[in-house]
Amino acid sequence: MNLTGPAAHLLQRRPGPPSSHPKVEEPSVKHPDDDNELFNRLEAEMTANPGADVVDLDKARAARESTPTGPASDDPTTAVMVDRPAPTATGPGYLGRLAAAKRRDVVPVWLRSTAELRTAAAWVARHYAHSVGYHALRSPIYAAHLTLQAPAGAAKFVGGTMRWVADRDGKPVRLAAVRREDVAEYLKLSRQRDGRVRLRVLVTVLAIYVLAPNWLQALSVGAVVLALGYAGRKEDDPVIHRAVELPTASKLTSDIVLRALGSLGIPAINQAQGKGRDGFEFTAPITRDGPGWRAEGNLPFGVTVTDIIERRERLASGLRCPLGCVWPEAVPNEHTGHLVLWVGDQDMSKAKKPVWPLLKSGSVELFKPIAFGTDQRGRWVEITLMYIAAVISAIPRMGKTFLLRLLLLIAALDPRAELHTYDLKGTGDLDPVGNAVSHRHRAGDEEEDIEYAVRDLRALREELRRRAKMIRSLPRDICPESKVTSELANKTSLGLHPIVVGVDECQVWFEHDKYGKELEEICTDLVKRGPATGIVLLLATQRPDAKALPTGISANASARFCLKVMGQLENDMVLGTSAYKRGVRATMFSWADKGIHYFVGEGSDARIVGSVYVDAPAAEAIGARARKARELAGTLSGYALGEEPEADESAAYDLLRDILAVVPADEPKVWSETVVARLAELRPEVYDGWDPEGLAAVLKPHGVPTIQVGPRVNGKVVNRRGIDRSHIVTAIAERDGNQDAG
Question: Which carries the bigger pLDDT value, residue 66 or residue 349?
Fold first, then answer.
């Protein structure tokens, strides 16, 4: 478009800066509003100067309309816009949004649960029954207290009555009329006062001299005295005290939540709130959820739920709640910035829990879920003990042993279950179970206790192999899933009843200088193959490191219970790799949260659970009940029945030295089948039935491999698996710390 005249300069663009400098003074993209403004100025100048050179406004208008508003593609300095205009409809269609919608329950969970309704009704009934009984017992004291205060009340009553009769309330008004010297007003008020006084005196006299019936007088004397005593009460000395101190739980509101989040010192939240925004997007209304409040929403971009969990103590301070009431949680299958904040009415460690259904009566079927604790909302959490291997960990005095004993008590209430219990701490915490029903039981970590356990674990490994062969031999219609079922466990002829092994302070086993590697190898095998064959292993330790809790065991345990621990390493050893980074942190539990733990199992994500508290007397009562059930079923055996294996059954044998005894120094390499045959001759009660595969498995924990051995037989080299005697000598030297083994 070519324009001339004095107004042409308005349509000329100023040349840009040299290409060697960044173009910061003038944007590369011209907005269409800039052309409109330029054209309007041009039109105004032409109107004001009609004698100037004529500019074809029509051509300018057409050029303006045809000029593209976007950047020129051939200009390398032109900014390219990456965001395209949003279409009218974005995201999935209407049906897609309906399919992905989250439907809230029409009937709340608590209203559908008969057990919760009964529990709540019982609490309410006990509350008011306690209040009535409390005050009824103290009613004579209340009466005496009020009687002593009656004279003061009588004085107040008489003084008040005299002021009322004399119309003392109107005196300031009459005095004001006198000060104003308003005679008419004063006379009017005086006549009104005289009338009131005459009427009130008459009423008072009648009330004094009119006698009430004798029975009414007798009845009213006590009431009058008590009323006078109440009138004479002191503000700082109440007569009647509260029978029940109700917890003070305020309603959770959005303002309280935002205030608490703003107090955490997270920059993204503080910056948003500093600019007048909330810093938190509520995605659902704040509602009641069990005995507490639930708030849910999205944190600012870049802020995760883990950031909130790390500041749980500060969050509790911002909410003005006890620490045990505040539980921030991540939501499975949601982004890491989606927060669920549950604030309880009471501290979880102090809130009254419902009565455990198995405390006084009832039996258990281990193949079905059994309640063992409650979540923050007071709802039961269940566990199925079959088909699992479990790890329990915590620092001392946080309830680890009590939780293990609780699980063993649950197992004991199934008369079919065979229990093997080991209290390596030696304090007798597992005796209520062991003495009552256990097939094998020991308390202590002496050498004979370890050897007793080694014999038992070796027998369990053989039992594992027998069960595997038995399951493999069963018809498919009887054992369709190649694992022990409740129906198979009921068939005593098959010998597939549940076996539950519980070990407290298991690190004593795995760190033992002589049997540690063998025990580790057997327990790893039980963890991996035991669940399908009906063998359950429960291990508890206060030192969840790689040495105390071998990786082969911790990585394959399907159920994990983590009470308070002190660091990320311990947390992830129990709850799984990266659990700490995902916000599943048992480090956040306080010292008062005894028995409260993260539970991973039952096919769900980590949940916070408060285990049922069963003290020693209650545990002994449950153990006695379990023993009686076994006596009726005829399944009591072993230690509980007074039957123990002989002390030298396979006790003090030393496999490595026995191998040296049957493999002389002039035979440096021997076939494994030859070794097991010679061992069976040496100790038939121990080695009878061993095979080369079993020998290799037993030698593996000692670091002794099997190798190819190829001696000449009838002039031909025959290769078979065998052992190198020098490896046995080295293993003994490393174990015993000397070099004179061979």
Answer: 349
- Per-residue pLDDT of 329-383, as tens digits, reads 888 778 889 999 999 988 888 888 889 999 999 999 999 999 999 988 888 999 9
Domain CATH code at residue 664: 1.10.10
135 and 185, same domain (yes or no) = yes
- Choice between 197 and 427, residue whose per-residue pLDDT is larger: 427
Q: Cα–Cα distance between 273 and 275 in angstroms, integer? A: 5
As given in the structure block, the two tokens for residue 587 are 């480090």
**Same domain, yes or no: 635 and 659:** no
81: phi then psi, degrees, rounded to nearest 5: -85, 120
Indicate whether 265 and 131 sit together in one domain. no
Does residue 361 form part of some domain?
no
CB 381 within 8 Å of CB 375: yes
Question: Which residues have CB under 8 Å from 437's CB, separation 6+?
Answer: 412, 419, 623, 626, 627, 630, 636, 640
The two three-digit tokens of residue 54, written as one number: 């004529």
List, in order, residues 6 or more apart from 532 with CB less than 8 Å away: 387, 471, 482, 483, 484
Q: What is the mean pLDDT of residues 504-518?
A: 91
The pair of structure tokens assigned to 51 is: 């004698």
Is residue 411 domain-shared with residue 537, that is, in the same domain?
yes
pLDDT value for 405:
97
The Cα–Cα gap between 711 and 717 comes to 6
Pair (614, 479) in one structural domain: yes
Terminal Cα-to-Cα distance of the chain (whole angstroms): 107
pTM of the full structure: 0.62
Residue 97 lies in a domain: no
CA dihedral 37, 40, 42, 45 (to 10 degrees): -130
User: Which CATH number goes with the domain that contains 525?
Assistant: 3.40.50.300
Average pLDDT over all residues of the chain: 81
Residue type, 573: M
575 & 721 share domain: no
Domain membership of residue 73 (yes or no) is: no
- Say whether both 189 and 301 belong to one domain: no
CATH number of the domain that residue 330 is part of: 3.30.980
- Residue 728 domain boundaries: 655-736
On the CB side of 264, CA atoms within 13 Å amount to 29
Residue 395, pLDDT above cutoff 80: yes
Look at residues 315, 313, 377 and name the one whose alpha carbon lies nearest to residue 346.
Answer: 377
Q: Among residues 416, 398, 583, which one has the least CA distance to residue 490?
A: 416
For residue 77, is it within any domain?
Answer: no
Residues 135 and 221 placed together within one structural domain of the fold: yes
What is the four-CA torsion angle of 574, 580, 584, 590, rounded to 10 degrees? 80
Strands 281-288 and 292-298: antiparallel
Separation between Cα atoms, residue 571 and residue 587, nearest integer Å:
7
What residues pair up with 339 in beta bridges, in sequence order? 297, 330
- Rounded to 10°, the helix 655-662/672-682 angle is 100
CA separation (Å) from 330 to 121, 300, 339, 345, 360?
Answer: 32, 15, 6, 21, 37
The Cα–Cα gap between 46 and 55 comes to 8
Tell me the β-bridge partners of 530: none
pLDDT in tens, 123-156: 778 888 888 888 888 888 878 877 777 777 777 7
- The residue from 50, 66, 82 where one domain ends is 66
Q: What is the mean pLDDT of residues 71-97?
A: 57
Side-chain-side CA neighbours of residue 414 (13 Å): 25
Task: With CA atoms as reference, report the closest residue to 439 among 458, 420, 455.
Answer: 420
Burial class (CB in 10 A: 0-12, 13-18, 19+), 502: buried
